[in-house]
Amino acid sequence: MLATPAWRVAGSSITGPSHVQTGTPCQDRHRLHVAQSGALIAIVSDGAGSAEYGGEGAALLCDRLVARLDRHLSAGVRKTGTRAGLLGLCRAVREGVHDAREAARAQGAEAGVGLESFHATLVGAVMLPRQGGLFFHIGDGAALAIGGDGERWQLSAPSNGEYADTTYFYTEPDWRTNLRFSLIDGGYDTIFVMTDGVTDLALSARPGGHEPFMPFFRPIGRYLAGATREEGEEALSATLDSGAVRERTSDDKTLVWAQVAGP
Known about the structure:
Blueprint: E1 2-4, E2 7-14, H1 17-22, E3 28-34, E4 40-46, H2 54-74, H3 83-111, E5 122-128, E6 132-138, E7 142-147, E8 152-156, H4 175-178, E9 180-184, E10 190-194, H5 196-202, E11 203-206, E12 209-212, H6 214-225, H7 229-240, H8 243-248, E13 253-260
Antiparallel strand pairs: 1-2, 2-13, 3-4, 4-5, 5-6, 6-9, 7-8, 7-10, 10-13, 11-12
Helix pairs in contact: 2-3
């Protein structure tokens, strides 16, 4: 499963039962990329079900962000934990979101629709092996960094809108206000990133926020660590599309995983 000597990776996006019933394709997208510097880029996006081109908006966001971050990281960035390094990553994320908005605007002009037709969320992480990195986030979904077997963790939790069933999108005018960054400390070796179709299974509520439900993450991580990428992605797809999961949530579901390879 070695994408490069630095990381093992796997990811899957599954169409939810509600979309299967209506013949609607999966509107989740994800990208996993390892830059030449050894930095992992992991991004997931959930296209809004109410948006005509939500899936396309999610794909544009993933592609433009990976391209922008890869160029930034390939320009010689090595220390993501320094102030200058973190500011540079934040700037690259904002530029990537801007690129995606402009691409969506251009496609919308051809189709005669506005940016709201491309509404999609954003959850992402960029991280150098054991040196830490950055979570970046607009809307719901979640990202998790784990050290060891779950003894240490850092979570970028969902952020919903004013009402329970609303959230924030990168295509909204106030996207810069809703774009959240959080530092990933050094020493973590595993990353999970997911859309909101998975968070009901993977997170537990606690006073003031959320925490990871480790009985969900531990067996998945242990299996993926010993599998090929193909085996791992088949297993992820089977898990996310299992009867037990379909009974819990009818939404599209995306889960990506990455772990530092070697000692």
